[in-house]
Specification:
142 residues; elongated; alpha+beta; 60s Ribosomal Protein L30, Chain: A; 4 helices
Length: 142
């Protein structure tokens, strides 16, 4: 039984078809994937909001008339041509005033909703800032 060179070549190609190429990476162990360094810890002390509020309502008087100013600010924010989200944050100087601040923020939230802003786009919060001299409600845009 003699085989021709062409037959032997075909047999060799078929036999070697399932083999992998052996090179330097075959014998190198896999290198570990580097892990990113851990995030730095948050700064100590109270978190300071560095955003500029769209509107700040001061409560130097018991019941300020914020309606026209709020209406103008909300219309300007809504007119920017994109979906606008609002953070309504009450700022009080003492923890004993948290419930009053929350009620004031809720009142401002209802006024914003009266301007056809859905409740899903509003977020309420209360913050104690001991350095605050006058209670405020700040409206931020995100």
């Amino acid at each position: 039984m003699r085989r021709s060179a062409a037959q032997l070549g075909c047999l060799a190609l078929l036999a070697l078809g399932g083999c992998a190429l052996v090179d330097q990476t075959t014998f190198d162990p896999p290198r570990p994937v580097p892990t990113p360094p851990p995030a730095p810890p948050p700064p100590a002390g109270p978190r300071v909001d560095t955003r500029t509020p769209l509107l700040t309502i001061g409560y130097a008087t018991a019941d300020p008339d914020f309606g026209p100013s709020l209406r103008t600010a909300v219309r300007a924010a809504e007119g920017r041509g994109r979906v606008t989200y609002y953070d309504v944050i009450a700022v009080v100087s003492k923890a004993a005033e948290l419930s009053l601040g929350q009620a004031r923020a809720a009142s401002v939230m209802r006024a914003i909703m009266a301007e056809n802003v859905p409740a899903e786009r509003l977020q309420l919060g209360v913050r104690v800032e001991p350095t605050a001299t006058v209670a405020q409600v700040r409206v931020y845009v995100r």
